[in-house]
Each structure stands twice: as structure tokens, then as C-alpha cells.
């Protein structure tokens, strides 16, 4: 069997890249064609990209959505709520935060117990050298370890913990895991007699 070039072939039944470039509205119309029962928009988009020539047999196809991070406000609300359930009232007042004279920036403190916490957001991670602003990846663990080490060395009397988004991309799971991180730290503080 010897391969031979095709002299004629049928026009694809799906919209081509050129067709979409000419008429972007065709994408919206086409999405319903590629949606399978019980699948979401991401699945439909992946099928559409694969079908529209965005993938080849030799290179494969991978549709990757960028990670979604908890905002600093969302995270601090979770952290403060979890600490409140352990009888610790964290203050975000800049005067209180600066009163501890920490070697790093903290987001909230409890002056009565000498507790300081920091949530390492994507912006914090980039500012600390853990990644680039345009990158989707940031080395939160390295930034966390560096901050905790610095406080332990410079401010050993302060009970400091840096938290980060444990499950980027899944907000419900992130909240649950962040609550668990805070709970573990609070229980450790209780076992040490700090709170």
C-alpha cells in the first residue's frame, strides 16, 4: 500500500480558523454544536479547539486554564474568622501591625498574644521574587519559608505564620484547605499555651 495525495477533499463541517477570523460570532454559534450533555463550557471549548484544527496528531492538544488565586481580602476574612473561633482577634490596623516591628510585612496581628500572620498572595509572591507577574506559576512555598525563617531569626518572640493559597484554581477547596492550615496553627498555639 503506497500513500497517495488526495486530489480533492471535502470542506470541513466545522468552522475553520479562517472562518472564525472573518466572523467571530460563528464561535458562539458553534459552541452549542460541540457541547455534549453534562459537560461545561471548558469541555466544549476543548472539543471545539481540537476540532477546529488547533491540534494535530503530531503535536497533540492541551487546553490549560490559568490558575485562579484567592484574593488577599478573601483569604484574610477566612484567616480572621478561623482565629476568632479560637478566641484570637486579629487586627489589620496598620498601627497595630507596625507595633510588632517585624522583619517582614504582616497582614494582621494580635498584640495581646504576640501573633502575626501573613497571607502570601500572587502579588506578594511576585514582589518577594517567587515568580514573574506574567507567569502563572509562583513559588509560594519558597516565599513562605523565607518569611518564616526571617521572622524566627529577627523576631523570635513573635508567633508568626505565613499562609498561601493551597489549591489554586479551586476556590471551595482553597477555602477548606486554608481553614485547615489556620486551624492547625491555632491548635499548635493552644498546645504551646500562647492562646
Secondary-structure blueprint:
Layout: H1 17-22, H2 25-34, H3 41-51, H4 72-84, H5 94-99, E1 108-110, E2 115-120, H6 122-127, H7 140-154, E3 159-164, H8 171-191
Parallel strand pairs: 2-3
Antiparallel strand pairs: 1-2
Report the sheet-strand fraction.
Answer: 5-15%
Tell me about the biggest sheet? Answer: 3 strands, mixed
Shape: elongated
Number of H- or I-type helical stretches? 8
Low-confidence stretches: 35-39
Radius of gyration: 25 Å
Give the number of domains. Answer: 2
Number of strands: 3
Describe this structure in words.
The structure is a single chain. By secondary structure, the chain is mainly alpha-helical. The chain folds into two domains: 1-65, no CATH class; 72-191, no CATH class. The chain has helices at residues 17-22, 25-34, 41-51, 72-84, 94-99, 122-127, 140-154, 171-191; strands at residues 108-110, 115-120, 159-164. Strands 1-2-3 form a three-stranded mixed beta sheet, with helices on both faces. Strand 1 (108-110) and strand 2 (115-120) form a beta hairpin. The longest helix is centred in the last third of the chain and has 21 residues, at 171-191.
Short description:
The protein is mainly alpha-helical and 195 residues long. The protein is built from 8 helices and 3 strands.
List keywords for this structure.
195 residues, mainly alpha, 8 helices, 3 strands
